[in-house]
Amino acid sequence: MVKRPKGAIIGIGELPPVRYSEGKTTLSLIAESVQLALADAGLNKEDIDGLLVGPQVGETPQHVPATVSEYLGIAPTMSNTVDLGGATGAGMVWRAAAAIEAGMCETVICVLANKNEKGNIPRSPNRNPIREFDVPFGASGANTSYALLKRLHMESYGSKQEDFARIAYWARKNACNNPKAIFYDKPVELEDILQSPLIADPLRLLEIVMPCAGGAAVIVTTEEKAGQAKKKPVYIKGAGEKITHRAVSQAPAVDQHPFAFSIPHALKQAGITGQDLDLLSLYDCYTSVVAVQLESIGICQPGQFGSLMREHTFGHDGDYPLNTHGGQLGFGQADLAGGMSHIVEAVTQLRGEAEGRQIPEAKHALVTGNGATLSETTALVLGGEPS
Fold first, then answer.
1. Percentage above 90 pLDDT, the chain
2. Is beta strand 234-243 parallel, antiparallel or unpaired with respect to 376-383?
């Protein structure tokens, strides 16, 4: 077994996603998420000596850790901004463990939040290579870029629209078991997905996350302190990370995407295989992102995720429990905090607290994060027992 960052998650807090967050600030959503995590862990803010936060805090363009620390009333001995897009949440967890191992701190709060106001349309700053090679040819925004990646998979392997639609179908089906999900009690049929409006060929509306507001936080501490935690701790068993590009025009071949490295690396650190996993908590901003992850885990061959989806079930009581909270496609994507929801669900399952959707005897969970256009990837293996 290779060396891994050691640590454990002892607290989680998550705000139910809402379509719009009238009267809220990013800082207030951060504070609410942190309060929930502290209460879950049975800690006070004075117990926190490390802070990891995302780069998108609308109330400040810079000095983000200092601004958040001041707002929370903490004085961390280690703080940083983690900027990995949708991989930020998972990236925070192993960085927290690494900082603890380095002796910089002992208990780290990792927090992400996003407000979403009516009529507020965020625009990307006009400064990066995408403006030179992608935007002039119409590849502007996530939908267009992910549509190109989905088309590449279809052309390379012969995958069908129905194969991708099944991923969205299971996300919405699983969301119906989670009262906190934004699409709770709102199932869809496979045909509904296939007939939903075409947004960017070949992507359809119900294959794409709906932006919303929310926040989430997790607390990471030493394995020693985890033994005295208020609730059952969840241990970091392995981690992997890989960045390959930023602009979709610079993306590698479909069989060389970054998850093909980060997921196997995390499994190797944990000393397990994909068949040992009880929960697949996979980042799902688009159905095509889930497809390539399934093929990277080792439970099916590259290009064969469609057969996997047709031949197996993916609910909490299924063959391969997948995003049992509904994933971002069913639970909701509160910007970068959407990725944190996959960590919260994994911890909830490994604690045995997922009422109405509990996986029997869950021991190992894979959590992933994805930023930009299948560019920045992080993978974590979490387990209910220490090494």
1. 83
2. antiparallel
